[in-house]
Amino acid sequence: MTTRERILQASLALFNAEGVANVPFNRIATELGMSQGNLHYHFKRKEEIVDWLWRRFERESEPILAGPAAPLASTDDLWLFLHLGFEKIHDYRFIYRDIDSLFATFPLLGTRLRALTAQSVATLRRLCEELVAAGCMNANDDDIEVLAMQMMLTATCWFSFARVLPESEDTGPGRAAYQVLSLLAPYLANDERVYIEYLRRKYID
Amino acid sequence: MTTRERILQASLALFNAEGVANVPFNRIATELGMSQGNLHYHFKRKEEIVDWLWRRFERESEPILAGPAAPLASTDDLWLFLHLGFEKIHDYRFIYRDIDSLFATFPLLGTRLRALTAQSVATLRRLCEELVAAGCMNANDDDIEVLAMQMMLTATCWFSFARVLPESEDTGPGRAAYQVLSLLAPYLANDERVYIEYLRRKYID
Prior knowledge:
2 copies of one chain form a homodimer. Chain A is elongated and about 60 Å long. Chain A is an all-alpha fold and 205 residues long. The model of chain A has no long low-confidence stretch (mean pLDDT 89). The first copy, chain A, folds into 2 domains: 1-44, Homeodomain-like (Arc Repressor Mutant, subunit A, Orthogonal Bundle), CATH 1.10.10; 61-204, Tetracycline Repressor, domain 2 (Orthogonal Bundle), CATH 1.10.357. Chain A has 11 helices and no strands. The A-B interface holds A 18-19, 21-22, 96-101, 103-104, 110, 113-114, 116-118, 142-143, 146, 149-150, 152-154, 156-158, 160-161, 163-167, 178-179, 182-183, 186-187 and B 18-19, 21-22, 96-101, 103-104, 110, 113-118, 142-143, 146, 149-150, 152-154, 156-158, 160-161, 163-167, 178-179, 182-183, 186-187.
């Protein structure tokens, strides 16, 4: 792994764990047992690292966001999409955990994050419509609008919400996935509901 | 209104709009057309103001959190509870909009906010159980657990989530209330569902 890549990965881990605003630039060098000079040779400022990580998140999200090529034929297909999305957001959870400080430092980020969210909600809405067309789900346009928005809210805010939950609660990505699946359950056809019940047990038992 | 109270209210408005970390202490005096000396006479530091506002939020939340004295007899009763809770969180939304920076400055806040969240989720769970007992709702313990958690997630994270939604979206407390009511809809008895449909139309039309 290149030094540059080592710096990016250590920064990502620190930002995710403590929030960008709480990690001083020099701390990243300390964490890697690297001289400050070496760190500064690769990146001039902390903001430059954040920018690199954000662009990487955006690029890696693109293929997930486009959604599956073929129309969904079962809840299992939606599940795969949600799982990939949750993992990606969890990998880069620093982005959603401290939006204020990030937006204040990078004004352009606001516009791009809003575009990404709109695209995600549109994809979620389309996938729900495909499930209705495939006879797996029984939901009208209003239901789908609420479900898509609620899935997106859970995906982006769960790891922030986890910080105000009692520390004894399981708050990992699995629990978040269980929450999202449970939102769908009442709208699913009977066969599909049995599958979701099976899946969600995997996540909380 | 006393000078002290004017400072508290102006600070609350600024913190809600821009986030605590983005409002320098002296900005509060400027906003009020007050000398820095006068501001400093009443509060030594910004943190002192945050502490006062947080305690006020905690105190004002207590009677709401306890829930209605009599067991719920209709969805309308739950609605009133949710409405009061959403309004209170909206009034003090700076608390949930930048949790990282707040926790870093006030380590004790974390413990108290987690206790408040646990108490809220427990009350939401109890109110759902009362609706089931009253025959208004059809949901098992797993459903209720998911609903209570999802209502709390929406209540505390909606106004942060709003910042990553397209600016054309309506993201006020009414829309949040509509989201929460919609989560309940599939679990309600027919009569109650008609009432919720009526209520939710009020919020989006």
